[in-house]
Amino acid sequence: xxxxxxxxxxxxxxIIFGIALEKSRVMEPGVLIGQFLFxxxxxxxxxxxxxxxxxxxxxxxxxxGLAELHPKSFVVGNIIVGGTILGVxxxxxxxxxxxxxxxxxxxxxxxxxxxxxxxxxxAFYGYNKSLIDGVLDMxxxxxxxxxxxxxxxxxxxxxxxxAAALVVVMIALEMYRPWKVDRGMDQNKxxxxxxNAAHA
Amino acid sequence: xxxxxxxVWSPYLAGIIIGLLQIPAFLLVDTALGASxxxxxxxxxxxxxxxxxxxxxxxxxxxMSKDKYFWQSALVIGIxxxxxxxxxxxxxxxxxxxxxxxxxxxxxxxxxxxxxGFIGGFVLLVGARIAGGCTSGHGISGLAxxxxxxxxxxxxxxxxxxxAANLLYKRAS
Lengths: 200, 173
Known about the structure:
The structure holds two protein chains of two kinds.
Chain A: H1 3-24, H2 29-36, H3 42-63, H4 76-93, H5 99-105, H6 110-127, H7 129-136, H8 146-149, H9 155-176, H10 179-183, H11 187-196
Chain B: H1 2-5, H2 11-20, H3 22-29, H4 37-47, H5 58-63, H6 67-89, H7 110-131, H8 135-144, H9 148-168
Helix pairs in contact in B: 4-6, 8-9
């Protein structure tokens, strides 16, 4: 596809992504960090639903031979250390590398500084990549998937089984804590708090 | 249109919509949803204004040349546009920082919010680039492909986030 159409496609998909992030409130720092404090389960629920849907979609696409998977390499040191640092970063910033853009769209001015910090962070890693990767080097398992560990099951079957298991987890989670309990209470309050604040 | 005016959607509906976005990503771009690579693309082009030799660094050159990274950069700009459309449609007002910081006992003083944003953003991208992906790439996309590395990355992410959040914030609102 030509770059022009890739950019149009990216923008269109991004708009849908951004609307979903804003409507589900997952891009709010209090919601994201609230999950880490186990006082708000919105993030986990959205995350499980997105993963289960992706599993079903990719099971279908690969079974029909329409798409190839692109799993990421399991570089042991990088994954464990990088993942932990990323989690700490989410807790400090109240955002992920994707949701920070939804915060910008939402009109939060401080999110611009998060993006600038992120650009500096990406530069720090890019300029020091060989040094950092060298320190963290603990070997790699390559682009391994759980479907590789169960060679008797095709990806689509393991994918659908996993998706079904995630649905069970979501049902249990919803029975334990209905999503409206996390949301319902703060929406109107938030609107009135906002009306006192400066806006663009 | 009515759906767009709503204040809030169920996290399940939002998750299903985001999960379905994998279909055009794999079919049309031959890649998975992700976000943090776009920071390397952005960094490459911004830093090339001051450091013309940056394109000689293989890591930056890769993210400044492949089509799928331009698609992803457009995706994150689209995320901002989508959130803008969504909050305007629901009648919320803009503010300097999120009012939700209050619910976890964090200060809303602008200086603190800016400083914390900058530090947080830096840590976020150092971590994501070391791990080779973020909450989208390793999380939503990696798990949807049953990636072993991604499942470990997600576990590490939650571990780091839970420990840091409990040290930094109050549980009671």
